[in-house]
Amino acid sequence: MTESTNGRPSGAERHRGAVTLRRDSIPPSTADEKLLDSHHRREWKTKDAWRSLRILSEFVEGFDTLADLPPAVSVFGSARSKPESPECEMAAALGAALAEAGYAVITGGGPGVMEAANRGATEAGGMSVGLGIELPFEQGLNDWVDVGIDFRYFFVRKTMFVKYAQAFVVLPGGFGTLDELFEAITLVQTKKVTRFPVILMGVAYWAGLIDWIRKTLLEDGKVSDSDLDLIQLTDDIEEAVQIIVAADAAHAAGNGKS
């Protein structure tokens, strides 16, 4: 164990909602793991009812905190990307461009691509939001976040990403990024949310996935041509922002007619 700059011992740290746990106080499991664990049936009637109140409180906290945000765009990408990587450079430029267009930038609040997008937005004078999550390998909110919330439960956090976003922009990432991408596409496809742009940036990175979707899912009838139209690819930041602005304008015009 090392010493921090203030002389106190430093070490591992985990955020669980409003609670910060450090060193030996960190439990071996997360709140999500306990909720979804199917091996402890005896606890379902004694503990899950109480957990529902905690879940409700996370929704209330998220709704109350984010309700006054300006129009926002959720940006996803890998926490493992290095600051000098092409995707981090793209994320920073994207964050700045979105801020200049009047959008807040919402990320998972972690390092890598998320930090780069938050930094770009903040440096450009925009609102930078981070929605953190309790993980076994704690990341913590990056220093560029203006408004940050730490969640216990993934499904509550995912609701916030969708509810307060006019668009999703997805940069290179791993399982978590893919999870957010396909959930967004599914919600739009099934009309669970009002259609909004889902933009993939890093064309070379995503080319294999899109090719597989076309050659396997589409040819086998698992998706339709119109489903592929839900995804847009570009490496041009100006084009990405314009897609979002145009979609906003079209949606506003449609509401005006009704």
Quick overview of this protein structure:
The chain is of the alpha/beta class and 258 residues long. The protein contains 9 helices and 9 strands.
Q: Helical amount among residues, as a percent range?
A: 40-55%
Beta-strand share of residues: 5-15%
Radius of gyration from the alpha-carbon trace, in angstroms: 19 Å
Q: Which sequence of strands runs across the widest sheet?
A: 6-5-4-3-7-8-9
Number of helices: 9
Order of helices and strands: EEHHEHEHEEHEHEHHEH
pLDDT under 50 segments (min length 5)? Answer: 1-9
Describe the 3D structure.
This protein is of the alpha/beta class and 258 residues long. Helices cover 47% and strands 15% of the residues. The chain has helices at 31-36, 44-66, 86-100, 113-123, 154-163, 175-189, 203-218, 225-228, 237-257; strands at residues 13-16, 19-22, 72-76, 104-107, 128-133, 147-151, 167-170, 198-200, 231-233. Strands 6-5-4-3-7-8-9 form a 7-stranded parallel β-sheet, sandwiched between helices. Strands 1-2 form a two-stranded antiparallel ribbon. β3 (72-76), α3 (86-100) and β4 form a beta-alpha-beta unit. α3 runs parallel beside α9. The longest helix has 23 residues, at 44-66. The chain is globular, with a radius of gyration of 19 Å. The N and C termini lie far apart (63 Å). The model is unreliable at 1-9 (pLDDT under 50).
Task: Set down the secondary structure blueprint.
Blueprint: E1 13-16, E2 19-22, H1 31-36, H2 44-66, E3 72-76, H3 86-100, E4 104-107, H4 113-123, E5 128-133, E6 147-151, H5 154-163, E7 167-170, H6 175-189, E8 198-200, H7 203-218, H8 225-228, E9 231-233, H9 237-257
Parallel strand pairs: 3-4, 3-7, 4-5, 5-6, 7-8, 8-9
Antiparallel strand pairs: 1-2
